[in-house]
Amino acid sequence: MRDMAAVPQRGVQVAARAALDGRRRGISALLPFVGPAFVASVAYIDPGNYATNIQSGAQFGYHLLWVVLLANMMAMLFQNLSAKLGIATGCNLPALCRREFTRPVSLGMWIVSEVAAMATDLAEFLGATLALNLLFNIPLIVATLITGVLTYALLALDRYGFRALEVAIGILVAVIALSYLIETGFSHPAWGQVAYHTFVPWLNGPSSVLLTVGIIGATIMPHAVYLHSGLMQDRIPARNAPEKRRVHHFELLDIVIAMTLAGLINMAMLYMSAAVFHHGYSGVADITGAYRTLVPLLGNAAAFVFLISLLASGLSSSTVGTMAGQVIMQGFVGFRIPVWVRRLVTMVPTVIIVALGVNPTMTLVISQVILSLVLPLPMVAVVKFTARRDLMGDLVNSRMVTVAAVAATCAVLLLNGVLLWQTAGLPLPFRA
Hints:
Blueprint: H1 10-20, H2 27-30, H3 36-41, H4 47-60, H5 65-89, H6 93-100, H7 103-136, H8 140-155, H9 162-187, H10 191-199, H11 206-219, H12 222-232, H13 241-277, H14 287-298, H15 300-333, H16 339-356, H17 360-374, H18 376-386, H19 389-392, H20 399-423
């Protein structure tokens, strides 16, 4: 697939140039810049989020909503850093890693990042496959193949320019958002509990720690940190430093809008599960179980809307995951493979999982934990690069931003350490 930033889209770029020159103002000035953050935001509402949020809400009620808020704020921060890196340098994060790090380090990062990309694609493919299976009662293996064809069709929109794909992804995000607005009406969450647990931290034992790490892994996706820099490099060419600052200003607004929407959707996933399943159905721990339990509890309409949102999530996120995989490969090792080959190769783990009859949703949760373990690599790299004035110029991080980014990275490392500690069978030194 061609580099999204290299695809000419004259209409958008002409409108963006008018905004940069001050000839367009208000919403009309912002519109040409809206799109990349919505593409990146799909990574934060993929089927892995469904799996972790459903299990979190069913098992712990509203208690882990604070984790969703924290993860979304961290994701917003790192998407801003990634986008800013692409704007300032005209280069994507993997390519900068290859340029600035030693060859063994960059090759090691590439291998680990490819593993993360495959874990991501596993979650996304399984989500869309499950939705097709439950919606149309078709075998999982057939649903897997249909998902592959549909995502390739979405990727083929690339030939019409970056705007066509951005619009398609934006429509799918809107479907997910509308679906959860409807589901909120069906589920009647306890708004007092939602408000309280959104801001009050809580952990209680190994299961809550595992799901906390899973939520963070499902929210601050490694491939999305890599991707956003690639989406922004030369998308709207800036002629000088003031124009780069102006492009970043517009992209920051794009990020705030897209990531706020993604955060609200994630919260809706969790509080819906808490409202419907926690009392009496706390054993619901997978997508299939959630669907089958929704039918008698809230009716066929609620279950249908749930599956439509899952299908939109799986298709959009699988498409974006393939785009990210191309950016990762091209950046780290300097070559790319045809998009249909990458699509075919990344389908293999899903086909194996389906063929072996492994529990799909537990696989989704574990895949998110893998992502969280890989996550510190791009986080450290993007913080390191965006703190360098020789690379970033006027867009270099302020001290406050760097401190916040370092703190977020340390928090992820700490949670990963706790996860590894408990995985080794050692008792946690605390109990909330």
